[in-house]
Design goal:
Layout (H helix, E strand, L loop, with lengths): L1 H16 L4 E4 L9 H5 L5 E4 L2 E4 L11 H6 L5 E4 L4
Antiparallel strand pairs: 1-4, 2-3
Bound molecules: iron/sulfur cluster.
Iron/sulfur cluster binds next to helix 2.
Amino acid sequence: MVGMLMTERKFVKEIKMDKNWYPMIGHARCVGDLYCVEFCSPAVFEEKSGKPAVVSNENCVEFYRGCQKVACESDVITYFGEEV
Ligand code: SF4
């Protein structure tokens, strides 16, 4: 019984930790202006070698598209979890 409860708790924790929404950057067309890094207050992005990298996808606010719609003038941000 105790073993079963532990398994259920672990399962619930894994579900909550599962991130279904976060940005993806089309690096081939990214111009490296880093507006997205500057814009994102939850610090999902970090600059790496002059380009943005998604380093904290768990901080991304689900279904919020601020970096795509406000920050990125090159329209190269899409989201893992969006319907295509
Ligand atoms: S705002 Fe867009 S073009 Fe600029 S660095 Fe970020 S992803 Fe690249």
